[in-house]
Amino acid sequence: MNMKWLEQWLGEDWKVTPAGGATGDAYIAQQGERKLFLKRNSSPFLAVLSAEGIVPKLLWTKRMTNGDVISAQAWLNGRKLESTEMKNESVALLLQKIHSSQALLQMIQKLGKKPFLANDILNELLSILEEKVSQKGAVQKGLQYLRSSLAEVAHEELAVCHCDVNHNNWILSDDNELYLIDWDGAVIADPALDIGMLLYWYVPQSEWKSWLKHYDIEMTNSLLRRMEWYVIAQSIISLQWYTTKGKQEEASYWHDYLESLLASRAF
């Protein structure tokens, strides 16, 4: 979208600048001391996320003459969480709130989302895997594990999962309110998909039990097995993604991480 056109449409001396992000569809609009976060063609899901207090407040949504939809959220004065803060109780509480929200689940179902189960993840992984990655020993071993244990990670209690719980997506406001942003990849899935990534990446294993207690779930063998399965799958996906992007350093990191996961596998 042309930012000059957007400035003219907003009127009253608004200045618009890119907000970054992968899609290039997010903007910061400023008029004196007033600031808005604008996004083009955001999902109707955003309204429910705002109502549930999971993302900054949605102020308005407008449909343009060209069919685009612009949403405006209140600008949040705050900061991204540090990786060391991801083990905090507040993170567990917000993720549990998200996973237990029936309003989120009903809305995402209305938008046509179907459950994204372990079998779907494995099939998607196999469809994107290039030969130069699939032939690596660690990847072969990982795929063998994913296939052989597929039936053991079946889980009936599904929820809305964010799928990218990276610490950069958690925003703490100056008023000490915590939000989880960037919901473009949300799916209906086993909550272990989000929980596993968060615990493996950010929380020492000795503290998993206490973190899960804040989340209000017991650390069972079933949960641990499912977490492990999803993290191994995500590690192979990340290895492929960075290989495709030609980012060798990051690809090497995920290859080594995958090897360490498989070497210390509990199941």
Automatic annotation (TrEMBL):
Official protein name in the record: Phosphotransferase family protein
Signal peptide annotation: none
Residues of the Aminoglycoside phosphotransferase domain: 19-216
Species in which this protein is naturally found: Ectobacillus funiculus
Top-rank lineage group of the source organism: Bacteria
InterPro entries: Aminoglycoside_PTrfase, CcrZ_PhaseVar_Mediator, Kinase-like_dom_sf
